[in-house]
Amino acid sequence: MPAKKEVDGKLIRSLAAIGCTQQEIGAVTGCSPDTLQRRFREDLTIGSETGKSSLRRRQWQAAMEGNVSMLIWLGKQLLGQREPIHIEHAGAIEYTSAEDLAAARARAAGAGLAQNAPAGITSH
Asked: What is the pTM for the complete model shown?
């Protein structure tokens, strides 16, 4: 049985921390993705999670320093905030069946729109 190749777990953690794929880490270390999963699963996980927390820290810092884009993005991601959606239509909408019309009305009701279809919406 061949000897196991010496691979530094710290290198694997560092590469995983900057978002390298297992394929990329394997190319650098000379290990297959299967070997990485089998022998270095914990290093891959620690590296990946460390990288994500570092990125989150930088995003948080940018937001706290007044980066409006980051404030908006984090608000959407962490607080569930959303942009209002406005849909305008400049013509009649035709549905081919009563079922299609009923489904459109149900979607409109779910979106907080009027229960009755606006004028110009007909079923054929």
From this structure: 0.59
